[in-house]
Amino acid sequence: MTDRELINKAVAASAFAYAPYSGFNVGAALECEDGTVYTGCNVENAALGNCICAERTALVKAVSEGRRSFKRMAVYADSDRYCMPCGTCRQMLYEFSPETEMLCVKSGGTYVSYKLSELLPNAFTLR
Ligand code: THU
C-alpha cells in the first residue's frame, strides 16, 4: 500500500468523526505488519474528558483483533496545520511499535512523516 492509499483511508474515516463539541474531525488509518488496515475517528462525549482520539480508536480496534505490530499510521484533519498525534496517543502506540511511521496530514493531503520514536523520545516503558 502506498502512503497515498493509507492517507485516503484516513481521510475517509474522518467522515465518521463524532465531534460536536470541538468541531475538529479526525481520521486515522493504521497499517499492521501483516498488511491489514484498521481505521478510526475521534469520538467525543458531553463529559469532555471521555473523548477518544482517532488514533486510539484505530489502535484499540487492531489490538482487540489480535494485531500488535504496526508499520505506518496516517492521521488526517481538514486543517491548515499538520495533524499531529497527541501525547496520549503517542504513548499508546509506542507500547506496541516504537518505530511506526506516522504520516501527519493536513487539508489537501500534504503530509509530513516521523518515526514514532522521534515524536516520543525517552519514552516511559516498563519492559
Ligand atoms: N484529536 C484526535 O482525534 N487526534 C489528534 O491527533 C488530535 C486531537 C481529537 C480529540 C478531540 O476530539 C478533537 O480532536 C479536538 O481535540
Write a structural description.
- The chain has 127 residues and is α+β, with helices and mostly antiparallel strands.
- It has a single domain (3-119), classed as Cytidine Deaminase, domain 2, CATH 3.40.140.10.
- It has four helices and five strands.
- The protein has helices spanning 3-14, 54-63, 87-94, 116-119, and strands at residues 26-32, 37-41, 70-77, 101-105, 111-115.
- Strands 2-1-3-4-5 form a five-stranded mixed sheet.
- The longest helix is centred in the N-terminal third of the chain and has 12 residues, at 3-14.
- The radius of gyration is 13 Å and the shape is globular.
- The mean pLDDT is 98.
- Bound molecules: tetrahydrodeoxyuridine (THU).
- Tetrahydrodeoxyuridine is lined by residues 19, 22, 24, 26, 42, 44, 51, 53-55, 75, 83, 85-86.
Task: State the gist of this model.
With 127 residues, this protein is α+β, with helices and mostly antiparallel strands. The protein has helices spanning 3-14, 54-63, 87-94, 116-119, and strands at 26-32, 37-41, 70-77, 101-105, 111-115.
The tally of domains stands at: 1
Number of DSSP-assigned strands: 5
Taking Cα atoms only, what radius of gyration do you get, to the nearest Å? 13 Å
Intertermini distance: 31 Å
Task: Let me know the largest β-sheet.
Answer: 5 strands, mixed
Strand order of the largest sheet: 2-1-3-4-5
State the CATH class: Alpha Beta
